[in-house]
Specification:
heterodimer, A: alpha+beta, 6 strands, globular, B: Alpha-Beta Plaits, Rossmann fold, 3 domains, eight-stranded mixed beta sheet, five-stranded antiparallel beta sheet
């Protein structure tokens, strides 16, 4: 059985000068392993694919950094019940 | 006095100003001049700003005149250097070691067999009417986090099933939705039925924010644009939002209003509330142009870093001078770092909450070098002694012993400033509520910074670029005064 590598969402951010180059966007669109989800931001792309494929793709484009998409929260200062007792 | 440590001083991006794509002007920038001035090893170097901030260091090595330096400094000098050269990255020298597997730890708590049930009824102290929707949390073992919790129904009642041992609730917290102070009981005897009467919030009585900064005029902060990246803002009669965006994937881009949690609205009220004295809340810079960037979806308690960065880019594009980010997480990421560098390079200052993990490390993106990280302090006497806020009173205390760093606040060398963040009364949908958090301390700093920038004007008039955001940071840091908590807790101090 062949197990496909797990797909996750990643942020590709352009660190060079000005807006992201169209050539890089075209390269992402042409990729078979990486799916472009959002290109509406001037300096970022949201993509989905296996980590290795995304990193390999980003490695072919200069001045781009990759970060996994993750969530941040509003800090909650309230005390939390950690272990609810069972009946 | 803490021992000196080694740090690497770097330009905002890369290891050299030139290689980072930062064009060197004919006339050297303050950062370029500074890096060139410490190009050779030297035992005692004193860096000073025009506003009186100073940092002492020993220069050990230099990569290039406009590049990285290896220096040795004490923690208080790191804070000082951030004020003198706000554009420089100060990275602790690190050494990599083999990764040892962590030891196993006991994580589960023994399950009790005997339980006792109690009904807590929450009412108003004024008229005895039930208070619905209040979160009631009872701890039988506070240190272990063992207990039960629930929310009051329309009759103001909630049933809690607790471990029977001891027949005492070590800590009983009541958090109302709005209009009342929360209540805190210690070592409460467990009875079949208990009643807790809540004290209503009186908007005429100053909270910590109004204690330190008074009642600000409506024009305060005019000419400054502030972006709130949060759960959305409004509607609330005390707030005027000029616009914004929703960057949550799959939601309407124009819906920047509150997602229902009220967090962003409370934060915005601290900066820009325009309420009348005694009848509403007045923020610290009510005259600012207020913009809302919603990054939390409807019903979501987490925001994607992609949504946050999109919002930050948009806020910079919209001309925000200050961006408030009362949010965070444990993990650093390169994309967020790059977005903050971009914001600073375009003249925008980013102010972040340090996080509420109880003396934990500063959360990200607050821990990012070019962001301003804010810890939370409180003041005795600005909230009822039997309220939930009293649980946050903890050392260190300030020179004025009524001031303290909130028990929930994260601390560390990345802290830049401290702001009032305990029992802060601000706007929520349908009224007003007193909340705690570095989420509240962060907009307190943003509000005072906006008022300061509007008064000084010289930074606002500069061309939007790195020098502008550096100058804004320099002005803000220069206005801070140490109040006696120590640099790990307050950075440069309070504005």
């Amino acid at each position: 059985m062949i197990v496909a590598p797990m797909s996750k969402k990643f942020i590709l951010r352009y660190c060079g000068k000005g807006a992201k180059p169209a050539t890089a966007v075209a390269r992402v669109k042409a990729s078979e392993d990486v799916k472009l989800l959002d290109d509406s931001s001037p300096r970022m792309l949201l993509v989905e694919g296996p980590k290795q494929a995304v990193e390999a793709l980003a490695g072919t484009m200069s001045d781009w950094v990759v970060s996994a998409e993750r969530t941040m929260k509003v800090p909650n200062p309230r005390p939390q019940v950690r272990s609810k007792r069972a009946a | 006095m803490a021992a000196p440590r080694r740090f690497v001083l770097l330009p905002p991006l890369g290891v050299r100003l030139a290689s980072a794509g930062i064009r060197l002007a004919r006339r050297a920038s303050p950062l370029e001049h500074f890096l060139a001035s410490i190009d050779r090893p030297a035992r005692r170097v004193l860096a000073r700003s025009g506003e009186g901030a100073a940092a002492r260091m020993q220069v050990l090595d230099s990569v290039h005149a406009d590049g990285a330096k290896l220096v040795e400094m004490r923690p208080e000098d790191v804070v000082g250097l951030r004020s003198v050269q706000p554009g420089v990255r100060i990275v602790p020298e690190v050494f990599f070691r083999p990764a040892r597997a962590p030891r196993p730890q006991v994580l589960s708590v023994a399950v009790a067999r005997r339980t006792v049930t109690t009904t807590v009824r929450v009412v108003s102290r004024t008229d005895g009417k039930p208070v619905a929707g209040a979160d009631v949390i009872g701890f039988t073992d506070y240190a272990a986090g063992e207990g039960a919790q629930g929310r009051t129904d329309a009759a103001g009642k909630v049933r809690l099933r607790l471990r029977a041992t001891g027949r005492k609730i070590e800590r009983l917290f009541i958090f109302p939705v709005l209009g009342f102070w929360g209540a805190l009981g210690k070592n409460v005897a467990v009875k079949a039925e208990m009643e807790v009467a809540l004290r209503p919030i009186d908007l005429r009585v100053p909270d910590a924010l109004r204690h330190f900064y008074g009642f600000t005029p409506l024009a305060m902060g005019r000419a400054v644009t502030v972006g709130i990246i949060d759960t959305g803002v409004g509607d609330h009669p005390d707030l005027v939002v000029e616009g914004g965006a929703n960057t949550v994937q799959g939601e309407k881009p124009g819906d920047w209003r509150d997602n229902g949690t009220g967090h962003g609205t409370h934060v915005a009220g601290i900066v820009a509330g325009r309420g009348a004295n005694g009848r509403g809340v007045r923020g610290l810079a009510p005259g600012v142009h207020l913009r809302s960037y919603r990054v939390f979806g409807k019903g979501d308690d987490g925001a994607s870093n992609y949504s946050i960065l999109k919002a930050l880019d948009r806020a910079v594009e919209d001309g925000c001078d200050l961006v408030n980010m009362s949010l965070g997480g444990p993990d650093r990421d390169e994309a967020t770092r790059s977005a903050i560098i971009d914001a600073r390079a375009q003249g925008t200052l980013v102010i972040c909450a340090a996080g509420n993990d109880g003396r934990g490390p500063v959360a990200y993106p607050g821990a990012e070098q070019l962001a301003i990280a804010v810890s939370a302090m409180g003041r005795r006497g600005t909230f009822p002694a039997d309220s939930t806020h009293a649980a946050e009173i903890m050392a260190p205390y300030g020179k004025d012993r009524a001031n303290f760093i909130a028990g929930f606040s994260n601390v560390g060398p990345e802290i830049d400033l401290a702001g009032p963040g305990v029992a802060i009364v601000s706007a929520v949908r349908g009224g007003y509520a007193a909340w705690d958090g570095t989420s509240m301390a962060c907009p307190a700093v943003t509000g005072v910074a906006a008022a300061l920038l509007a008064r000084e004007r010289r930074a606002l008039r500069m061309v939007r670029g790195q020098a502008r955001s550096d100058e804004m940071a320099r002005l803000v840091f220069a206005a801070a005064r140490a109040v006696g908590f120590g640099v790990r807790f307050e950075g440069r101090g309070m504005l």
